Inverse folding.
């Protein structure tokens, strides 16, 4: 059995990965500063995973906390989810993003090196690509982030590839997520955005719950089939399966793994709203507003490399994404 450290393991994606790793027989430690998460997720992870987790409330920039943890715990691999992820906030506070996401990763890697731990899976993002180019995006498509959040992911990718080049005994995976949505099918864990959500699916759920009167569609004059933005939404359960597959790959293969994790299918805003309404039987009123600054018309992945290298392919469709997102959101509503 392997022991995996999950930085940011109390967050949206990390909590789903934690439950999946426990279920797959791994033992895990979650390290999180609870900046964007809460302790209340721990019992749910333990119930879903069927086993206890080691739980450390600390910051990845805290060198001595990392050294203590890595000296005490026989960690075999690290999945590094911890990070700030709000694009607008990154534009307003770039230093906060470079400090947390870039310096934080440097501190983590230095502590791993001191402890002799060399297997690292990093949460990267489709936002590292130049999103103005032809779709679908392949791993060799041109890179070119357009905001500090994206640059922080780009810089960490570069740092990790340089680290591998300097010492090929490191085992590195850079996983570029497209648009993760949905929740654990049990409805016990899910995404808990702070305040009014920016992203589409949490926003749809807030409208369906009656907390917001309507969904503002950010533009319907894009050159897409219905004029609204197209994205590659993938179920968070598929996303975490991609991490398990990457972890298995790294135990036998040396070269750094750079992979898109997406379905390869684009869905428009109006298509997602319609699927949500059909699956949940809730009405989601929409109003068309102006384009959101910085948005692209369309973005979707070519996930072929993940299929070839780690035998991973998304299985859940948009109906399952909507059903599980709503199961979580409506359960939260009733407590
Ligand atoms: P999240 O905010 O729910 O989870 C991140 C977790 O990291 C939170 O629990 C937060 O408290 C913790 N954290 C942040 N800074 C920390 C620090 N300095 N020390 C310790 N803990 C810290 O976000 P998520 O959606 O689960 O995203 C996980 C990772 O995936 C992030 O790195 C994010 O950038 C990346 N990602 C997310 C998406 C998405 O749409 N959700 C898309 C692409 C990439
Ligand atoms: N949208 C609406 N109304 C809303 C929210 C979103 O119409 O209330 C539309 C957007 O305009 C876009 C689509 O829904 O067309 C998806 O928007 P999201 O905010 O859910 O996702 P984005 O693809 O814009 O952003 C995501 C991540 C970012 C990351 C970016 C690029 O949230 O962190 O992908 O990878 F930078």
């Amino acid at each position: 059995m392997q022991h995996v450290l999950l930085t940011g393991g109390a967050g949206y994606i990390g909590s789903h990965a934690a439950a999946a790793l426990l279920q797959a027989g791994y033992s895990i430690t979650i390290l999180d500063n609870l900046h964007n998460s809460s302790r209340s997720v721990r019992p749910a992870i333990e119930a879903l995973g069927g086993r206890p987790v080691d739980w450390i409330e600390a910051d990845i920039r805290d060198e001595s906390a990392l050294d203590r943890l890595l000296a005490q715990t026989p960690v075999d691999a690290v999945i590094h989810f911890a990070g700030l992820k709000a694009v607008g906030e990154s534009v307003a506070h770039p230093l906060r993003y470079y400090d947390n996401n870039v310096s934080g990763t440097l501190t983590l890697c230095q502590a791993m090196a001191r402890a002799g731990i060399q297997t690292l899976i990093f949460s990267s993002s489709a936002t590292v690509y130049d999103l103005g180019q032809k779709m679908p995006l392949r791993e060799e498509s041109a890179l070119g982030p357009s905001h500090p959040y994206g640059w922080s992911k780009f810089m960490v990718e570069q740092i990790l590839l340089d680290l591998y080049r300097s010492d090929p005994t490191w085992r590195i995976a850079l996983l570029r997520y497209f648009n993760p949505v949905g929740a654990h099918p049990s409805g016990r864990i899910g995404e808990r955005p702070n305040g009014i959500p920016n992203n589409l699916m949490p926003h749809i759920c807030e409208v369906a719950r009656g907390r917001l009167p309507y969904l503002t569609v950010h533009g319907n004059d894009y050159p897409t089939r219905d004029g609204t933005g197209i994205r590659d939404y993938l179920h968070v359960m598929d996303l975490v399966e991609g991490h398990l597959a990457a972890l298995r790959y790294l135990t036998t293969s040396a070269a750094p793994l750079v992979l898109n994790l997406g379905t390869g299918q684009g869905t428009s805003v109006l298509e997602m709203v319609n699927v949500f309404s059909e699956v949940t039987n809730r009405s989601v009123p929409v109003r068309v507003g102006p384009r959101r600054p910085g948005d692209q018309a369309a973005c979707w992945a070519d996930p072929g490399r993940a299929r070839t290298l780690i035998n991973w392919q998304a299985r859940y469709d948009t109906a399952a994404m909507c059903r599980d997102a709503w199961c979580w959101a409506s359960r939260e509503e009733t407590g």
Q: What stands out?
A: The chain has a mean pLDDT of 96. The pocket of nicotinamide-adenine-dinucleotide (ligand 1) is lined by residues 7-8, 10-14, 32-37, 59-61, 81-85, 100, 104, 123, 125, 177, 180 (CB under 6 Å). DSSP finds eleven helices and 14 strands in the chain.
